[in-house]
Amino acid sequence: MRIVLLFLLQFGLSAWGNAWALSLSPVPVAPNVYAFIGDTGMRSVENEGMNANSGFVVTDEGVVVIDSGSTWQVAKEIHRAIRAVTRQPVKIVVNTGGQDHRWLGNGYFKSIGAEIIAARPALADMQARGAMQLDGLSQTLGEKAAGTQPVYPDRLFDQSETLRLGGQEIQLLYFHGGHTPGDSVVWLPKQGVLFSGDLVFVDRLLGVLPFSSATDWLASFNVMEKLGPKTIVPGHGQVCDLDRARRDTGDYLRLLITHMKQAVDKGIALQEAIDSLDQSAFSRLANFDLLKGGNASRVYLEMESQ
């Protein structure tokens, strides 16, 4: 089944006094498990900062949401889409990391009584970067960021926590972080479905950012592989299998780390190391030209600091 997210521009809707452009369509991944697949581009007015994937699990005792979206309004749209599937209330929201689209919708879900859970390292990341994230979104989205405020998780877990709700077993797992320090995954062992958060990018090139650790990321990916998921809802890109995740994420991280570690060990300077790195096998991925240079530079500096 083709997994898609429809971004529909709807003008003339006066109920809010403004026309909110984003419309989310939940699509089934497994029985009672749904995903929203976000834009693969950068944050924009059109995608309302929701350039990432999220999802939800329906149980007989309530709904578990995986990632609350980029703003109050996006979270409200996530809830509207959930209510088109089930009348069960949202009981729990899991934030899989500290990127804005993983948690800045928390305020909306908190207002309807949901409990919010995240890995402990994600909280420090949220506290450190939340104001900056909100300022950036406000500058990009304008009025579409209205009502959004940083709202932190109610409950934290260290390495793992198992949620049992309405006959569903949902495992929350933290390995080593990676794209952000608090990246975690949501694992449904019965269905073989993994919501990987930002540990997996497909269809678009992953970003090694100033707060990322490529070595932690690859270590997390290697542990995640051992779960043997049948289906992965990646942090970005279409729903995939493990082989696709390896090709677009694991192999790319391994290339960056191996090349830059060898360059540092040989005393090769930064620019020469970047120039000699052949990333062309990944040029098929969206945002390749935008991100490849920064990725190479930051991994070199990471290897140099070890």
From TrEMBL:
Record bears the keyword NAD: no
Gene Ontology molecular-function annotations: hydrolase activity
Boundaries of every Metallo-beta-lactamase domain copy: 51-236
This protein's record includes keyword Manganese: no
Pfam families: Lactamase_B
Provenance organism: Sulfurimicrobium lacus
Name the UniProt record assigns to this protein: MBL fold metallo-hydrolase
Coiled-coil annotated residue ranges, if any: none
